[in-house]
Amino acid sequence: MQQSILLPLAALLPLLLGPVAYAFGKKDWKKAVYVMIAATAAEFALLTYLLIRAVMGSPLGFTTSLTGLGLRMQADGFRALYALIAGGMWLITSLFSLDYFAHGENRGRYALFTLMTLGMTVGLFLSDSLVTTFLFFECMSLMSYPWVAHEETPGAMRAAQTYLYIAVIGGLCTLMGIALLPEGMATASYGELSAPEGGIPMLTAILIFVGFAAKAGSFPVHIWLPKAHPVAPAPASALLSGMLTKTGIFGMLVITGRLMTHSLPWGDLVFRLGVITMLLGAVLAILSGNLKRTLACSSLSQIGFIMVGVGLIALLGEENGLAAFGVVGHMVNHSLFKLTLFICAGAIYLNTHELDLKKLQGWGRGKPLLMIPFLIGALGISGVPLLSGYLSKSLLHEAILEYVHHLQAHGHNAFIYQLSEKLFLLAGGMTFCYMMRLFIILFVKKNPEKQAEYDRQKPVLRPVPQIALLLAAVPIVLIGVLPQVFETGMGMLSLPFLNAEVPAHLPVPYFSLENLKGAAISLLIGGALVLLCSFLEKRKLPKITFDLEDMIYRPLLKVLCWVGGLMAKLADGLTDHAVPVLRGLGNFSARLCDSLMDNAALLMRKSALSPKKEAKTVPVGNRVTYAMGVVADCVVGVPEGGVSYISEFAALHEEIVRDRRKITKSMSFGLMLFSLGLLATLIYMLA
């Protein structure tokens, strides 16, 4: 393979032009966007050349051992293909930014971090070793953080904090897993990487998986995704949803194809997580009343579809060709869908400054230049025949049926996978439901109060952003009507990287009766769900919300900090007399009861119960510490000239709270320094 400096240049070019865009943006925001467009256009041209070389059978590579760890990059079929798709998405969103950022702040900063994230993302897709992938992956997470925090509202800052915590903590798990690999595996080229005799331990694979699953948005580390996308600017939301989630899938494919090749337990784990993610995202999307949140939850669901295929690549062994085709196809298709749909959502927000679906009802009536691309994206992601989503979903569905037949032929119980096949069709119907619900609300129904005002708002996008929107929507149709050229071509190009086999039947019968039947069942289910949702909306039933982060993850972190504080206090108390130790145990009981009561109340308040009257306040501390103090004063008694236990419990509770806040702040600061260190290391290796 020919060595070329073009590969590190593909990662460095946007990285170097980012500060230029920021400098120009100080005086004129348009210049920052123009630099961003020029940089992404140059990057797209370079990546097009790399893909042409890969298609012609002469891919380029790059290797350096400058730091001892080694930096490996390669532009073979799948990697060159997805790097090019990334470049195309960045170019289209940059064109759309001309309209989107006509009003707003921090536009130079947005251009800076958008280009730097592009460089890290392209570098990740061209990476050729686990160490190289990890370095680009963590730097990409750091560079994309300002997207989520761009508006700097309290909601945006909290979502950005969650995004950074999940990304970096997940990355640390991945780093731990890579460190546990046998010597030489972390720096080996993917073409030479294979599992040792007997495979690697399952725990090691799971640790590596955690960071990639977090970025992909897989359950249970998906909590950042429904919060980050709605608060980020629409062009950034399109990239977060359509591209950055695919970097997580990239890592999953490396684990599945190279480290856990044909491992049934591993395939089963990824498959089941995929089914849960697929259904959870669809349910959340149906329940959402916010335009961008619905699209974000849709991304969660579609990632689940892809993970189902990734699991089947391992489960089907040497018969995994259709599953591999389906994974690659749905990765590409989902990127195109979310690019189109988020640009449409951005155009709607640009004209209305509103994302609430009730307030947006009827806004799109009489606006065909927006309605048609949105409808193409909505029907495509729903799996309607002659659009690209039908092809990849049919392949994934066929792969599930193939594995069910394989199990039955060998006398194994296939109930779980038969059930999963039904759930797959149900999730496809739910996709059609929430996308048609969006389309009907935005483009069909009339607004009871503002329809006349909406009808007067004719200009939606200027010519250049409108062209960008059409460029995003057209491939959805082209792939759908020419499947043997595009869908099969992308699949064949990607098989070597996925370490998968060629399908037994070529050309693939995309429009077979079985595939059309599966699509029809999903669409019928979706139509029925649309009617059901319409009926329930008229009934105005109370909404039930469930936030995994607020109800489980953050309280769990709080409890862990309390436990740490307890252990520190207990260790300190052991050096003194027995009475302080007993007092410490009493304080622990008070804190534990406080935690249980507060979190139980939060759980009920966040679910179905309506708010109750606020309880009476207490003079010192909270209700639990006050009650415990009163009891202690009555039972033990207050020492003469001493301090009441009410004050003791309240003071200790305040101390634990302060310690927890210090730990949280130091953790955030440490994570940021860790990410900056990784970025500096990567720039040094590329230079």
How does this structure look, described?
The protein has 687 residues and is mostly helical. A hairpin with a 6-residue loop joins strand 2 (60-64) and strand 3 (71-74). 74% of the residues lie in helices and 2% in strands. Among the domains are: 153-185 and 199-261, no CATH class; 277-337 and 354-365 and 382-538, no CATH class; 558-686, no CATH class. The radius of gyration is 27 Å and the shape is globular. Strands 1-2-3 form a 3-stranded mixed β-sheet.
Keywords:
single chain; 687 residues; mainly alpha; three-stranded mixed sheet; 3 strands; globular
Shape: globular
**Percent of residues in β-strands:** under 5%
Biggest sheet overview: 3 strands, mixed
Residue stretches low in confidence (pLDDT < 50, at least 5 long) are 603-615
Tell me the radius of gyration: 27 Å
Task: Give the strand tally.
Answer: 3
Q: Let me know the average pLDDT.
A: 83
User: Could you give the order of the helices and strands?
Assistant: EHHEEHHHHHHHHHHHHHHHHHHHHHH
The strand order across the widest sheet is 1-2-3
**Cα separation of the termini:** 22 Å
Task: Please work out how many helical segments DSSP would assign.
Answer: 24
Structural class: mainly alpha
Give the helix level as a range of percent.
over 70%
